[in-house]
Amino acid sequence: SQQGEEDPQALSIQEGENATMNCSYKTSINNLQWYRQNSGRGLVHLILIRSNEREKHSGRLRVTLDTSKKSSSLLITASRAADTASYFCATDQMNSGYSTLTFGKGTMLLVSP
Amino acid sequence: NAGVMQNPRHLVRRRGQEARLRCSPVKGHSHVYWYRQLPEEGLKFMVYLQKENIIDESGMPKERFSAEFPKEGPSILRIQQVVRGDSAAYFCASSQKEQQFFGPGTRLTVL
Question: What is the distance between the alpha carbons of residues B4 and B91, in angstroms, rounded to a whole number?
């Protein structure tokens, strides 16, 4: 699998349900970030979790990071139709003192009313 | 998106023409990144620049593509002699520390 690979590729749920997306990566990282992209639009930064952190919350979002398994998960609780979007994880590897992000292909989330 | 501006938002070019994409970073940010997103794909890193310097261009094709971030003015991604495979969304991001702030992207269509 490539660096920052999400699964599932697509997820369809009803409003009010929770959505969980997973991300796996290969190399050591400085931090891992989750982004949302609405169809045909730019990226919105959701949350950043550093390599020495295990869990982080932001509103209805909960992100976990397991560096031993090189994996992260994004949980969206009590989903809404407006959460419909593609979600990407991006790993920051801090090469030579600067960061470049490596993105996965994303999980497409559809929340039905 | 914290003020990163890109223009144009949509650009149509015929094969062989040149495409110039502009990015104005968040005021005060001196780090600029360019990414390319092909349909149904995630973003792929192309180049990282600081003012007047290219720091890392490992993700940029060796031919036809160039980038600059002059002392004054926006960062420019230039694609010469475009081909159909260049059709994609090109995103710019700027940062001062860890978090990169993304612009809305330029969608390039090559006919």
Answer: 10
Note the pLDDT tens digit of each residue in B38-53. Answer: 987 889 999 999 988 9
pLDDT, tens digit, 9 for 90 and up, residues A45-96: 999 999 999 999 999 999 999 999 999 999 999 999 999 999 999 998 766 6
Q: Are A29 and A95 in contact (CB under 8 A)?
A: no
Tell me the three state secondary structure of residue A37.
strand
d(CA B93, CA A76): 25
What is the interface size between A and B, counted as CB pairs within 8 Å?
60
Strand order in the sheet with B65-68: B5-7, B19-24, B75-79, B65-68
Return d(Cα B66, Cα B71) in angstroms, integer: 17
Residue carrying the six token digits 């960062």:
B75
Nearest CA in chain B to A95: B56
Q: What angle do CA B41, B46, B48 make, to 5 degrees?
A: 135
Which of A51, A56, A99, A105 should one mutate to test binding to chain B, selecting the residue with the greatest count of B CBs within 10 A?
A99
Nearest residue to B37 (alpha-carbon basis) of A72, A43, A69, A20: A43
